[in-house]
Amino acid sequence: MSEHIDLPCHSSRSSLLSSSSGYNNYRGLLNLVYVLLAMGSGRLVLENLLKYGLLVQIDLPVKFLRDPTQWPALTLILLVNIFILITYYLELKAKSILLQLVTLIMLLIFPVVYIWIRKPNPVGAFLAVSIYLIVFLKLVSYIHINWLCRKQYI
User: Fold this and answer.
1) Taking the model in full, what pTM does it have?
2) Around 59, how many Cα atoms within 13 Å sit in the side-chain half-sphere?
3) CA–CA separation, 35 vs 58, rounded Å?
């Protein structure tokens, strides 16, 4: 036993994860992480299903189609497409800028009046007004670019 005392039991070398080791194929480690993540997530999903059951309401779109007025913010978000189509039609026919200006003003006024009358959930109303504002800015840009292109080619 005394002859092995001076021999070190460990030798120093670079780690497999360091850049100086020369090893750069970590596919197995990455696969292990994926498997562990999937198993952990699967366990949580199974545990929640066993504890609470399936909480998804499958008939929610049917309820919306029966009475869309019960969902004022969603109805408001769907109605923004009308303004987009009107603006596209006015640009396609190259109508006057006054009609486009009226459409843009209506785009800003309509959600405010609708929310004032219907009083939807504040979160849904905020989301709807945000979408209307984004669409307003995009339509202003669309009209302006088309006006510049029309002016350049005429």
Assistant:
1) 0.57
2) 3
3) 31
**Of 12, 30, 9, nearest to 21 (Cα)?**
12
Q: What is the pLDDT of residue 11?
A: 75
Beta-carbon contacts of residue 77 (< 8 Å; ≥ 6 apart): 127, 128, 131
- For the chain, what are the domain ranges? 10-52, 60-153
**pLDDT tens readout for residues 35-78:** 999 998 988 888 888 888 877 777 777 776 777 667 788 888 88
Whether the pLDDT of residue 1 is over 60: the answer is no
Whole-Å CA distances, 59 to 31, 63, 65, 73, 78:
39, 6, 10, 19, 19
